[in-house]
Amino acid sequence: MCCESKRRFLLLYATQKGQAKAIAEEIWQQAGAHGLEADMHCISEMDKYNLETEKDPVVIVISTTGTGEPPDTARKFVKKIQDKTLPPDHFAHLQYGLLGLGDSEYMFFCNGGRTVDRRLQELGAQHFYDTGLADDCVGLELVVDPWIDGLWLALKEALQLQKEKEGMNNAVSAVSSSLSTAPHAVHELKLSSEVRNLKLEDEEVRGSDTLSQKLDDINLVAPARDTEPSLVHSVPPVSQSALNIPALPPEYIEVEFQDTQGENPHLSSLISEGRTFEVPVTKAVQLTREDAVKTALLLELDIADTAFEYQPGDAFCVICPNNVSEVEKLLHILGLSEKGDDFVCVKVKQGTKKKGAVRPQHIPERSTLKFILTWCLEIRAIPKKAFLRALVECTSDAGEKRRLQELCSRQGASDYTHFIRDSNVCLLDLLHAFPSCKPSLSLLIEHLPKLQARSYSVSSSDLYQPGRLCFVFNVVEFPASPSRPVSRKGVCTGWLAELVAPLLHPSKNSLGTKGESSSTEKISIFPRPNNAFHLPADPSVPFIMVGPGTGIAPFIGFLQHRQKLREEHTDWEFGETWLFFGCRHQDRDYLFKQLQCFLKNGTLTHLKVCFSRDSSAAEVAPPKYVQDILRLCAKEVARVLLKERGYFYICGDKKHMADDVSDAVVDILSMEMEADKLEAMKSLAMLREAKRYLQDVWS
To answer: What residue stretches are annotated with the Flavodoxin-like domain (predicted)?
Structure first.
């Protein structure tokens, strides 16, 4: 092990997109100021640590991905500890504290952390510090910051107990004296996602992880008449507070421009998830009318000459670039407009103070500058507080400097949430708002996360359309706001829409005749199989599908597959199928009128539709939303789920639909079972557990 000090602790992180790693690095960075030394490793590096023989306290930071799975980097670790032959005292010697990251917008909140926590407990490990569960829906920092603050006293107490057990009495007095300077605290904090109501109090400055920034040190330039806070302007009490700001992250990347030429890496080298496929777009269809609120497109890909395989219900990922004009703007701000096509070499800075510093995996060692900004870095990412702290050092104007300090400070937590996080502010917005901020290219590489491939549900069946893969998406729109001066389209949906725009010729009624065109444009994709969101293995089992808007996408694949099975196996028994679909207007965004064909040929047994924005002259107003139609069909829904042991599928927006559908199902079960709501919720939980109530949702 690299840290032999008796004040050592083991720090493990399991990350999917880099957040858990960034938080672990913050803990590692703060440890020195508390007289501790963190031996930090990715949890996948099992050759560098050994929990079976670990004597020091262990701190674990772990995220959650997919439908509640641990991140990819933790899969081997989880598989190892889930070995059923391990005895219940396997980790009886182990003391640990765990911080789980998740998003309550999704089912199985923080399940990656909960899974590891539960299993360690089953194997006899003991908490030296209570588990924290941080919610990205309301802001990870609401739990992360106080959890880290309380960690140090808990670690020191755990290390003191450890030394006492080892009989090292000569060291007890030294540890006790260090503890006497810290205020008494109850460190079993019961931190969870419910901490969203937590009010962070100003804390005393401790060690070198924070610094006090007095107001009189700064010459504020904001006009006194501004009484409302904004991205660039603060008001009391924040504007008059001494600030607790994070320690400056150590620089660790060096970028060298080279005169030589060459070729950029292949896009497949940027993906660690498996094999990628470059496939042509063979068809583009606009499914919505021009006056619809959202523009929905269907694209068809030719996968005939590839080894790409999928089932209806699976998802796949599209490798997409950043917007060209945004990359050009960033190059201009960096003063590198003339160097975009120059090759650069990215390496670790000599003498860096960052522990275990390595070049980020998503950054090629050698490529053009434009390639890095276009394909490697998520330039639309919401800047973390550590990034804001680093940007302070690149800002020359005193007022702008102070405001950036406020936004990354403990005192400015509310302003950060409102003006940056909730406003979806990105680096370009910050550089526009704070024009004296001139970051280096190396700083961007250090702090901007990997540009993630975007996931889409498959909307076809390989059995029905061999060699073809279809998917449907809305072109995402982000309107301009006070914090964001320009409107933008989604990174991937905007790019795809632009890619097929010259080839797309919607007719007057694109819903019926479907204007379409052929194309030779190619995109790079890779599979992301879904372990559960598939048709029932037994075709005689009935199922219900709920998919408003583009949530209908996977169910088109379900119905195509079922139609082909019915044609090929006339002697099979097939269960009934229900589809609940909703959209705003029947004549503008009824995405698939071919549903009537499935109904006529018997593939679809029941089709229930609703239109939320259409007016009606009927005495009794028709149902507006899919949950309303479900309630009207309560007896049938309960029969399918309870008596016939059918399946229930939901696809679409979680916040504004899936939760309401879940509530409707609880009400239906309660009414039809003649049971109270708690019993109905238990029944729904059992359906989830049995993988008969399945969701493919997004926020």
So the answer is: 9-152
